[in-house]
Amino acid sequence: MNVTVRGHRQACRTVDFDAATNTVRLIEQRLLPHRFVILSSTDYQKTACAIRDMVVRGAPAIAATAAYGLAQGARAFRGRDLARFTAHLERVRTTLEAARPTAVDPVNALRQVLQAMREGRTVAQQQDLALAAARAFADASVAHCEAIGRHGLPLIQDGTRVLTHCNAGWLACVDVGTATAPLYAAQAAGRQFHVFCDETRPRCQGASLTAWELAHQGVSHHVLADNAAGHLMQRGEIDLVIVGSDRVLGRTGHVANKIGTYTKAVLAHRHRLPFYVAIPLSTLDWELRDGSEIPIEERSEDEVLGAWGAVATPGLRSSASTSASTSRPGRPAYVRIANPSSHARNPGFDVTPPELITGIITPVGIFKPRELWRQRQRLGGPA
Ligand code: MRU
Questions:
Q1: Which of these, 131, 74, 369, 150, lies nearest to 245 by C-alpha position?
Q2: What is the DSSP string of 178-242?
Q3: What is the pLDDT along the chain (383 residues), one digit of tens a residue?
Q4: pTM summary value
Q5: Best mutation site among 246, 261, 275 for ligand 1, i.e. most ligand atoms within 8 A of its Cβ?
Q6: Residue 188: other Cβ atoms inside 10 A
Q7: Residue ranges of the chain assigned to CATH 1.20.120.420
Q8: Domain 153-371: which CATH class?
Q9: How far is the first Cα of the chain from the last one, in angstroms, to the nearest whole number?
Q10: Domain 2-146: CATH superfamily, name plus number
Q11: Which among 175, 180, 227, 242 is placed 20 to 30 Å from 148, CA to CA?
């Protein structure tokens, strides 16, 4: 998508790779919306840390990062011994895969890259194939999001008011986004609509990332406190919910997504509002047989007990203002919110059962969650 940095509008992908320096290039999402910085990760361990520490986040984006991280690790290997190369690759794969457990997209991406590498007979051939496969995965991910936009477009009419949760936009993907794809398609079609972004505590991806994206693309929106959606639904101020996902079970239609998604699905059901989940094919898990088997990431309690923001630096001139007395919102800071002696639980994701979901918007069409298994051939699933 296009971003304006220091007055220059430029096209930018969330995740990219520089072959000359063997670096993975990532938008540093922890600094948004206050600063736009591209981070270069110079080895696969750092790339895994960038995933774990949420420099990059969102299932399709961490999948592309893992794919590039595997290529990066493969290309860093020196020597011609295939057995040693294979053992090295296994270390790279497990390091990247372990970075975040809930999303299945990295697992699928790593599998695809390794599969493509098997065609190579030498270390050098496999290194070249790894990068080609990682690039192909990233490009396919963008194409999937564009196709989601085409299939989801009819859902967004003039006047539609959409609720979304967390960030399932282009920052969570390589480009375009999943939940945002129908919105951007509707914008391109000249439709007027409004988006409510759930704040999405504890990391506030809705308030910081989705709102930043929508503002940059000129989409009308409001940020909502996480508990406000029910009230707006009750008053008839929301028409539709679209979210992304970290793992959709192809066998059952269970959907894992950011904590709070299930609550919104229950509310939408209570108010008879359509609830859609938008996914690229990499988000489909054809193996697990029940939603309770999905590994749910439990993150640090610090995320719940406090919050991050940007602290105004007194006396510095704002780049957006001519007033010398204006403060620059710049220095990232963590503030403690909760009672000092209290501890917290912090499950990062929850699972929404299929009966609460109106449809899964995929690159090949919109399906009922329980239709996925029957449609598995079209969705790239098992025979
Ligand atoms: O913890 P995060 O920020 O990685 O969680 C992201 C989400 O839950 C997204 O909704 C999901 O990955 C889908 S992104 C298209």
A1: 369
A2: STTHHHHHHHHTT---EEEEE--TTTTHIIIIIHHHHHHHT--EEEE-TT-HHHHHHTT---EEE
A3: 888 887 888 889 999 999 999 999 999 999 999 999 999 999 999 999 999 999 999 999 999 999 999 999 999 999 999 999 999 999 999 999 999 999 999 999 999 999 999 999 999 999 999 999 999 999 999 999 999 999 999 999 999 999 999 999 999 999 999 999 999 999 999 999 999 999 999 999 999 999 999 999 999 999 999 999 999 999 999 999 999 999 999 999 999 999 999 999 999 999 999 999 999 999 999 999 999 999 999 999 999 999 999 887 665 444 433 333 344 567 889 999 999 999 999 999 999 999 999 999 999 999 999 999 999 999 999 99
A4: 0.95
A5: 246
A6: 10
A7: 2-146
A8: alpha beta
A9: 36
A10: translation initiation factor eif-2b, domain 1 (1.20.120.420)
A11: 227
Which part of the chain is CATH 3.40.50.10470?
153-371
Catalytic residue numbers? 246
Ligand 1, residues at Cβ distance < 6 Å = 57-60, 103, 166, 168, 172-173, 178, 205, 244-246, 257-258, 348
Q: Do residues 343 and 302 lie in contact, with contact meaning Cβ atoms separated by under 8 Å?
A: no
